[in-house]
Amino acid sequence: QQATAHEKCEKLKKQEVVTLRELLEDTSQRNQRQKGELQTQLLATQQALRDSRDIIARMEEESETFQPRLAQVEWEKMTWVVVTVVVLMGWLGSYMQGKQG
C-alpha cells in the first residue's frame, strides 16, 4: 500500500511539473505577445511625436516669415493712409484758397 501511495505521489508530482511547465509556456507566450503589442504602440507614439514636432517646427517657421509680411502690410496701409491724408489736405487747402480768392 505504501508503494502505491508513493507511486501516486510521484505521478501527482509529474503532473504538477507538467502543469507548471504549461503555465510557464503560456505566460511566456502571452508576455511575448504583449511585448510585441507594446513595441508597436511605442513606435506609433514615437512617430506621432515626430510628426507633432515637425508640425510645430513648420508652424514656427511660418510664424517667423509671417511676422515680417504682416509688418510690411501694416507699413503699406500706413503709407496709403498718409498719402491719402496729404492729398486730401492739399485738395482742401486749394479748395479753401479758391473759395477765398
Summarize the structure.
With 101 residues, this protein is an all-alpha fold.
Could you characterize what this model shows?
The chain is mainly alpha-helical. The chain has one helix at residues 2-100. It is rod-shaped, with a radius of gyration of 43 Å. The termini are far apart. The model has no long low-confidence stretch (mean pLDDT 88).
List the helices and strands and how they pair.
Blueprint: H1 2-100
Write out key terms for the chains shown.
single chain, 101 residues, mainly alpha, 1 helix
Which residues sit in consecutive blocks of at least 5 with pLDDT less than 50? Answer: none
Identify the overall geometry.
rod-shaped
Structural class: mainly alpha
Whole-angstrom Rg:
43 Å
Helix and strand element order: H
Q: How big a fraction of the residues is strand?
A: under 5%
Distance from N terminus to C terminus (CA atoms, Å) equals 145 Å
How many runs of DSSP E, i.e. beta strands?
0
Mean pLDDT: 88
Largest sheet: none
Q: Please give the count of helices.
A: 1
Q: Helicity, in percent?
A: over 70%
